Amino acid sequence: MRIVDSLVTGRRRNLEHIPDVDFLEGDLADRTIAEQAVDGMDYVLHQAAIPSVPRSVADPITSHRANLDASLNLLVAARDAGVKRLVYAGSSSVYGNQPTLPKHEDMPPNPLSPYALQKLVAEQYCRMFTGLYGFETVAIRYFNVFGPRQDPGSPYSGVISLFATALLEGRQPIIYGDGEQTRDFTYVANVVDGVLRACEAKDAAGEVINVATGGRISLNELLRVMNGIVGTNLQAIYKEARAGDVKHSQADITKAKTLLGYQPIVSLEEGLRRTLEWCRAESAAAAGR
Ligand code: UD1
After folding, report:
1. How confident is the model over 234-254, as a mean pLDDT?
2. Would you call 4 helix, strand, or coil by DSSP?
3. Whose CA is closest to atom 1 on ligand 1?
4. Which terminal residue of the chain has fewer beta carbons within 10 Å of its beta carbon, N or C?
5. 92 in contact with ligand 1, CB cutoff 6 A
6. pLDDT for 154-183, tens place per residue?
7. For the chain, which domains are there?
8. Is there an atom of ligand 1 within 6 Å of 174 CB?
9. If you take atom 22 of ligand 1, which residue's CA is the nearest one?
């Protein structure tokens, strides 16, 4: 197994527990890195991106390069290297504020931020590479993935990692807007399962498929549940809603069930418990270092 990362948002340390990794440090927006990345590989699981909606609003050029130039390089390189299939990490953000819930793959996309638009274009490149060149791709639309090793170190980090560190450090977390926005938060093991299934699923090539839990929870409720797990009662500090933010997000996962035989294996509550346990162990280890 080869892993390629520019380490702009990732950490080498996150791979320490995985044996026999052929690690290549580099930027996939550089064509020679993309070519080295796919050389000799059967499958490519394309997770590389600069995430965060507000980060893309603040700096669309940097996120465009990471999310689009790199994706096109990788598609071309993988096609030319004879890779069997490329599975792409798409995003629920492409739906924007579609009023109908849950969101299913046939709905017209409505990106509200550069990040969402970039994720949509790369997904369409994937479909086009299957139609035009016969190169097999599958685009999986992720819905607010969370879990251990998510970096809470930036204001652009995922909300669960930010809430977790705030609660464990006894700080009040920040909520942007009224906290009544909802998300289909998905524990990472579910996404890994969906992606691995997409590598070999028979009728999945050229498709776009939601992989999520299929539920939704408001940020206010999420904070209440997390306070319960940690044993705290910290209230949020409310700030103005973020530009480009989607109001409600919930996946219809029927297509994933049909095409991939996918079922969520870890519930939101269990995922939150595992994540908070990991964060607690991490801060204990950091305090002991
Ligand atoms: C979006 C995508 C998601 C993608 C992610 C990549 C949607 C519905 N989801 O996530 O699929 O993986 O981008 O970055 O578009 N918030 C707070 N306090 C904080 C941080 C965030 O209230 O400290 C709020 C945000 O305003 C937002 C929600 O929490 O309403 C979730 O934010 P975040 O975790 O950054 O993810 P999305 O932008 O929803």
Report:
1. 97
2. strand
3. 93
4. C
5. yes
6. 889 999 999 999 999 999 999 999 999 999
7. 2-288 (3.40.50.720)
8. yes
9. 175
